[in-house]
Please model this.
Amino acid sequence: RLGTTRVRSYTTSNMSPSIKKILISDNVAPECKEILEKAGIVVEMKTDMTKEELCQKIKGCDGLIVRSATKVTADVIEASDCLKIVGRAGTGVDNVDIPAATKKNVVVMNTPGGNTLSAAEHTCFLIGSLARQIPQAHQSMREGRWDRKKFMGNELYGKTLGIIGLGRIGKEVALRMQAFGMTTIGFDPIIDAKTASEFNVEWMELEQLWPKCDYITVHVPLIPQTQNMLCDETFAKCKEGLRVVNVARGGIYEEAAILRALESGKCGGAALDVWEKEPTTNTALVQHPNVIAIPHLGANTREGQRRCAIEIAEQIVDWVNGKGLVGAVNARDLKL
Model:
């Protein structure tokens, strides 16, 4: 599937799992710890651990809460002796070995709604920045130049925005960019045409979408079906001067193909918040004059991080209290 993760609630046979101790291994908002402790759960916080340190610290813990820094590998999961849940305070779970967790009957839970507005707003700012070359003009001023003629922009009014992935974030991007007078078209394998039309997006297959777009943004997970979705082959189907935005996951756009498209003029600009390898070493792309390069800031707002921290804690507490299992990405494959 290509679409944004949807939250589901599952009823489990074990309605009250025993969660006595949780380790938080990344920096999360303090409300997370407060909610868990209020529910009678012992919470230990230790960040910036090596893999070996985490493998030791995980012993005796029923739960682990992470953001994106901690890599919950098969070795970490195997080192645990009573782990029942890995909670990701955010959307992407590509830093968690889900097959290894599932094999050991460990719930992997995320909070896909917590960062929605942060990611959507970030996307919109980048679209506007591409249209008016704001970062480049700012840098020119800092270097002592007054390059009014160099930075001729484009209006967003009347332009077509292609949105791949019409879940929460894609929908919020569409609603905001429509306020600028953009025509919004999109694709999602789960959201159908009728639902998309309710927020004024014309649903179409990807083959129809590519040649119509002035801008493209993606809001899908990185999975085999989406890897290198935008590549030489798909660029060839697009308009000259297409501008692209990626606030989702590195690897959905093929970086080498973007660079070739920029050099040929097929791509008029790229705003990249995520990279195939992070931190990125792709200096050719970062330093290209028509690239806005960002160090993965889509979810980095105080409001978004606080929301995710509260949601992951509340979801765990609700599960412990027999109120159902929400946000579990592997629930269907577990014996609960």
About this structure: The first helix runs from residue 30 to 38. The CA atoms of residues 19 and 283 lie 46 Å apart.
